[in-house]
Design a protein that fits this description.
The chain is an alpha/beta fold and 322 residues long. The chain has helices spanning 6-18, 60-63, 86-89, 103-115, 130-142, 159-162, 181-188, 193-208, 234-248, 279-292, and strands spanning 49-55, 68-73, 121-124, 149-153, 171-174, 212-213, 219-228, 253-257, 297-300, 318-321. It has 10 helices and 10 strands.
């Protein structure tokens, strides 16, 4: 758990707030005043939270026995055609008024997650609302919150903003989606993803190091990298895993995810995303992981069941690797 003094946390809130007006919290640096018009994330200046729950579908080191204390933040800094959380990440003009939340309200909810036995507090896609989130964390710490903080993100982050989270975040859980800028542009409208993502992960590793587990196998600090295998994109997966091994180290903990199903704009899509992974693709992804020498982490079984879960979780189990 982070140990920053309250005065330092308060200063970080102020520094992050200065980056929100005009907004430059993410690499797009829209420079909009969000009270007047929306940037790429389409979010107002006020905090928007879609759900707060004990999440038992994350990697075992995060969910443990009692679940991760997950906070689903509204909006996203990317535009993935296949987004499986698109109802809250890409909400369009008609946003649910029930999503509005004050830092004080969220602080109370995070305390309740701790009381329920959750192993951590996990912010999902938090970048666009960071000032209010860190303020909520500060208020919760004052009231006795002692859980590690997990920063679950798409990996598209400004290192300058991440530096303001040094000592705030305990566990980074970023995606590494792409190794090819053209693919990132075509599937996620983010042409600079690869360059930005690699700089961001280097900063994350600098801050927290490799993943550390307690005697019960629950993470308390470190970096855990996720990669979602996309249908027809095995070369991308091989290149992503090779980069992780070469640049972050073969001792990097990796979660190889095979839960892909056609969602959002991928339904009936002409880019080849309109289907699940085949058994052969899943097997080849596992081979790529082995060839990269990445032995620490989890492998998700190939998804074959229901394509949508109303609470935005997946139920596919993760298998531990030695």
């Amino acid at each position: 758990m982070n140990t920053l003094a309250d005065s330092e946390l308060r200063e970080r809130v102020l520094q992050l707030a200065a980056l929100q007006e005009p907004c430059q919290l993410c690499p797009r640096r829209c420079l909009v005043h969000r009270g007047e018009r929306r940037g790429h994330c389409n979010q107002p200046p006020g905090l928007q939270i879609a759900a707060v729950c004990a999440h038992r579908g994350e990697e075992p080191a995060l969910s443990g026995h009692n679940g991760a204390g997950t906070v689903f933040v509204v909006g996203c800094t990317m535009s993935c055609r296949f987004c499986q959380n698109h109802q809250i990440s890409q909400p369009g003009r008609h946003q649910d008024p029930r999503w509005s939340c004050s830092p004080e309200q969220l602080a109370r909810q995070m305390i309740e997650l701790q009381q329920a036995g959750c192993h951590n507090i996990e912010w999902v896609s938090p970048t666009q609302h960071l000032p209010a989130l860190v303020q909520a964390l500060r208020l919760a710490r004052i009231e006795g919150l002692r859980l590690p903080l997990v920063f679950n993100c798409n990996g598209y982050q400004r290192p300058e903003v991440l530096s303001l989270l040094d000592g705030v975040v305990d566990i980074y859980l970023p995606d590494v989606k792409y190794a090819d800028p053209a693919l990132a542009s075509r599937l996620s409208a983010t042409v600079d993803y690869v360059e930005v993502n690699r700089l961001a992960l280097a900063e994350m590793k600098r801050q927290v190091g490799q993943l550390q587990l307690d005697p019960d196998g629950v993470a308390w600090r470190g970096l855990l990298v996720r990669h979602l295998v996309l249908p027809g994109q095995l070369d991308n997966t091989r290149r992503v895993l090779g980069w992780i091994a070469a640049e972050l180290g073969r001792d990097t903990w990796v979660s190889l995810m095979s839960q892909y199903y056609p969602a959002h704009c991928a339904v009936g899509d002409s880019t080849g995303l309109g289907r699940r992974l085949t058994a052969r693709e899943h097997h080849r992804a596992l081979q790529a992981l082995e060839r990269a020498g990445l032995d620490s982490g989890w492998v998700q079984e190939r998804a074959t069941g229901t394509a949508f879960c109303p609470d935005f979780t997946h139920s596919d189990p993760f298998e531990a690797r030695s």
